[in-house]
Design a protein that fits this description.
CATH topology of the largest domain: D-Maltodextrin-Binding Protein, domain 2
Mean pLDDT: 92
Radius of gyration: 24 Å
CATH architecture of the largest domain: 3-Layer(aba) Sandwich
Distance between the termini: 60 Å
Number of strands: 10
Low-confidence stretches: 1-28
Helix content: 40-55%
Strand content: 15-25%
CATH superfamily of the largest domain: Periplasmic binding protein-like II
Oligomer: single chain
Structural class: alpha/beta
Number of domains: 2
Strand order of the largest sheet: 2-1-3-10-4
Shape: globular
Length: about 325
Amino acid sequence: MRQSNSKIRRALAFCAALACAQPGLAGARQPAAEKAVMFIGWRAEAEWGGFFQALAKGIYRKHGLDVEIRLGNPQSNPTPMLLAGRVDFTAGSSGTSLNAAREGAPLMSVAAVFQKDPRVLIAHPGQGVDSIEQIKGRTVLVGALGMATFWPYLRGRFGFTDDQVKPYTFSLAPFLADKRVVQQGLVTNEPLALRKAGVRDPVSFLLADYGWDPYMTTIVTTRDNVEKRPQFVQKFVDASIEGWYSYLYDDPAPGNELIKRNNPEMTDDQIAFAIQAMKERGLVDSGDARRMGIGAMTDARWEHFYKSMVDVGVLPAGVDVRKAYTLRFVNKRVGMR
């Protein structure tokens, strides 16, 4: 009996040792999470909510990533950070990636969170601006970035002129002082701010509804990461997509708490308004994303936007559009609801 018990003990000890040596078995050592840094270049807001949700709910960790989200300001320049390897991912757009391709910078968009640009033109109610065409001839407040992007498109399509434009300084005061003025804004932000300032029903024209079709909040990384660390990029893209589905369709409270922790000025009503606008306007989950999942991109859409920018003189002909993006990591219906 003692000999039999001794054999059993030795057999159990051998099985335990074998389990520790085999991946996936009890007691196996799990690989350390890969560090990934995402630079969003702005304050923490609901417009970045899916990334914060993925961090707060452990979705990145589930995919084997230890993610840090770094904030910024309007003067932040993410390109040198990416090229120097100080960050792994940044938020961009069709425009920023096409400019990188034009300049030969080895950066690529690997997913597009926003299918629609949230930018709007806003007018006072009751001022005879019931359609976007009626903005022609009125003073429009546009920022420097807008003058280099959407304004040339609107100028070409609707006959707007540069002498209509006055600088937009990110203050509502000039708009509030003159009911005839039109200004740029974000559908997720300015309409609520204007209502709080006494403009009961501001008239908003979402530029995406009028043919302006860049991808926004694209996930940008280096070509080196795409070619040499594809699994790393795929994990980050998949986890971010899952975070966005969770933020829009589950309880967004974990992401919201992290947003407010990083931006104490952000209020619950601002966050709720932005989430509602993202859903109602289909900023994230619309178009190709409804068929192929959040983050979706297509060759045709990239080509169309590039051609529209060439047509209005924003970009030169001859840019290799395929260097601005890759479809390798998207259109896989990850996390679709």
